[in-house]
Amino acid sequence: MPESNERKVMSRADLTKRLVSKLRNEEAVVGGIGWTNFELWGAGQRPQNFYMLGSMGLAFPIALGVAIAQPKRRVIGLEGDGSLLMQVGALGTIASRNQRNLVMIVWDNGAYQITGGQPAATATVVDVVGLARASGLEKSFWAKDEAHFEQLVDRALSEEGPFFIAVKIDSAKPAATTHRDPVQIRERFMRGLGVREAI
């Protein structure tokens, strides 16, 4: 069992709200599929939020693309552990790119929660921070508790990245569900990034 499974289990809903409360500079946030983006939606809709629908494992690649396109904007990708395992090769690409305005946050509950709670490899043998470090991401950390999570987010929003932050989280069902309108999500996000004029 990896040491990560002995870490404090925190509330994804609470930490998502803590993260969003720190966003004061129109930072872009890409929320991975399922409960990750449900919590982001529930924390308060922002035009700079992108809520993914059905594209498992692509939060970090999409966030990387946004960060490359807008290097002066801090870009945050939120991803579940199961989704990360689907596209773990993206970590090496991100490390080789060394995109300094990119922040990655992984919510690790050791399960594929949205499809029924089947256990993921992170529940037994895989340490996502170990994966990130082995992929070349030096600024990769486990959040020890809520205060430490906030400290890591503060660093990630002020220092050069890329940053990778992982958190052991609960499996509580989100209170809200993302409004599933792909065109509306895309258009609002593009306007939020200033690349599409308001209608």
UniProtKB/TrEMBL annotation:
Keyword Lyase among record annotations: yes
Keyword Transmembrane helix applies: yes
Pfam families linked to this entry: TPP_enzyme_C (PF02775)
Domain Thiamine pyrophosphate enzyme TPP-binding positions: 46-167
Keywords of this entry: Decarboxylase, Lyase, Membrane, Thiamine pyrophosphate, Transmembrane, Transmembrane helix
Transmembrane segments: 50-69
InterPro entries registered for this protein in UniProt: THDP-binding (IPR029061), TPP-bd_CS (IPR000399), TPP_dependent_decarboxylase (IPR051818), TPP_enzyme_TPP-bd (IPR011766)
Any one GO biological process: small molecule metabolic process
GO MF, one annotated term: carboxy-lyase activity
NCBIfam families linked: PRK06163.1 (NF004813)
PANTHER family recorded: SULFOPYRUVATE DECARBOXYLASE, SULFOPYRUVATE DECARBOXYLASE SUBUNIT ALPHA
Protein name: Thiamine pyrophosphate enzyme-like TPP-binding protein
Organism: Chelativorans sp. (strain BNC1)
Organism classification: Bacteria, Pseudomonadati, Pseudomonadota, Alphaproteobacteria, Hyphomicrobiales
